[in-house]
Design goal:
Blueprint lengths: L3 H5 L17 H15 L4 H5 L1 H13 L16 H15 L1 H11 L2 E2 L2 E2 L1 E3 L7 E3 L2 E4 L5 H16 L10 H4 L2 H16 L5 H33 L6 H11 L8 H14 L4 H18 L4 H12 L6 H11 L8
Parallel strand pairs: 3-5
Antiparallel strand pairs: 1-2, 4-5
């Protein structure tokens, strides 16, 4: 696993089916150790138990269809002041209180503690303790990201803890709002249908990438739980087995990702699951008769500290069965 080439050139016939620990090389020993630590860690217990719900959600996200892209460039540039204006106008169609809160926070500057922080150099956008940090360079995607991070900031509360609905749902309101805002922008002729398709494609590719990687991590954890050692042979077989799944990451991307896991001694399912669930819910809400109402329900559910992660997953699965979802 030292280099991608080593892995791809690995001769799988070196192994018998029943492996003893002495036959593992140093990288295989390390990978088994990483996975075992996650299985044994008390904070991961409920995450791992919930894989039975997460796995079919990953599989469904991988089935989502891609939009047709006619032009790879955005149709126009949009400055930050216009982005704020359009986001506010859109929010007034969803909920006037939310729209007011958005404007108050955008222009809030208490003791130099801004809620919205525009960074001059490129950073990956993020929201921390109710403060949004983004790099804005007049692209349509920046306008969508600005609202995404502001929804995080607006929904932030100290009452939110890891053992609430927030654990799984924190990216659901933001992914729903991205889609609703994009549709509103097309309807109001601010962006084109092709711009909308580019935004959908950008988000879906990212979600399908993390869905692929989460399914790999689930497979590795299952391997160890069944008492099997993780070997390069078994890993390659697992990757090859998943290549028939539509939109699954390529063999090379899968191997690159597992090398990252090995180098960083870290699995990523905790962070990834939020985006996968967000993509899954956003797709359902998109087909519903009243997506704005659905958004507000999920938004309020996400910041409710009394709802456990398990309850939030149950609610999400039940939403799929509701009659107001058009299929």
């Amino acid at each position: 696993l030292t280099t991608l080439e080593d892995f791809l050139n690995f001769e799988s016939n070196n192994y018998e089916e029943n492996i003893s620990p002495e036959q593992l090389d140093s990288e295989e020993i390390e990978m088994n150790k990483i996975i075992d630590e996650y299985i044994q860690h008390p904070d991961c217990k409920s995450y791992i138990e919930n894989f039975k719900t997460i796995k079919p959600i990953c599989e469904e996200v991988l089935k989502q269809k891609h939009s047709e892209i006619k032009e790879k460039e955005w149709s126009r540039n949009i400055g930050i002041n216009d982005a704020i204006k359009y986001a506010h106008q859109f929010l007034t169609t969803v909920d006037s209180t939310l729209a007011d809160q958005f404007m108050n926070l955008v222009y809030q500057n208490n003791n130099n503690q801004k809620t919205l922080n525009i960074i001059p150099n490129y950073i990956k956008p993020y929201c921390e303790k109710g403060k949004a940090y983004i790099y804005y360079h007049d692209k349509i995607e920046n306008m969508i990201t600005l609202l995404h991070e502001m929804i995080h900031a607006m929904g932030y509360s100290d009452a939110i803890n890891t053992n609430s609905a927030y654990r799984y749902l924190r990216e659901s309101p933001t992914l729903i709002i991205e889609n609703l805002f994009s549709k509103w922008l097309v309807k109001n002729k601010i962006i084109t249908q092709n711009d909308y398709n580019l935004l959908k494609e950008w988000r879906l590719r990212d979600s399908q990438d993390v869905a692929s990687k989460t399914l790999m991590e689930i497979a590795l954890i299952d391997m160890r739980k069944k008492g099997q050692y993780i070997t390069k042979k078994r890993v390659l077989e697992m990757i090859d087995e998943k290549q028939h799944i539509n939109n699954f990451a390529t063999r090379e991307e899968c191997i690159k990702y597992l090398m990252k896991v090995l180098n960083n001694k870290k699995l990523y399912f905790k962070e990834s699951e939020r985006y996968i669930i967000g993509q899954y819910i956003s797709d359902k809400v998109d087909k519903s008769r009243n997506p704005e109402r659905e958004f507000l329900e999920i938004y309020n559910l996400t910041s409710n500290p009394n709802i456990t992660p398990e309850e939030s997953l149950k609610i999400i699965k039940e939403k799929d069965q509701e009659p107001n979802i058009d299929r």
